[in-house]
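Tokens for chain A. Residues wanted.
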């Protein structure tokens, strides 16, 4: 019984320790909203928006639906609005911050240095 109990406790610890964080910001869908529009307005990666709202499948939205748009609370003192021809390296350089820091400051929007899909209209935290 001791080994089984230990295994159950270890499983509970690891599932809690490595669980995905809860949603920290919700958005109520309005008429004519689309996942793309919400991802731009709320500065969240489209990939995250879809993953965090799995019950939406192919992103079929209806007015009144409540979506998770942020899993990470971000404290930001300065932002940069993405414009055409912006990319993460350029934004980091223009704002005198390390690219890794830019990624760390934007966990809802930027997946990694290699997966930095930003789009005009999104707000990127730069400090």
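Reply:
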């Amino acid at each position: 019984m001791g080994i089984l109990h230990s295994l159950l406790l270890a499983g509970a610890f690891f599932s809690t320790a490595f669980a995905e964080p809860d949603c920290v910001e919700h958005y109520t869908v309005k008429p004519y909203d689309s996942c793309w529009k919400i991802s731009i307005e709320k500065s969240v990666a489209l990939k995250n928006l879809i993953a965090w709202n799995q019950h939406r499948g192919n992103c079929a939205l209806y007015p009144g639906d409540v979506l998770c748009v942020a899993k990470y609370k971000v404290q930001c003192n300065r932002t940069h609005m993405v414009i055409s021809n912006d990319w993460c390296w350029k934004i980091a350089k223009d704002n005198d911050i390390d690219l890794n820091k830019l990624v760390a400051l934007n966990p809802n929007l930027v997946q990694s240095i290699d997966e930095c899909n930003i789009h005009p209209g999104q707000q990127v935290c730069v400090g």
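Helices lie at 2-17, 35-41, 46-52, 88-94, 99-105. The longest helix spans residues 2-17.
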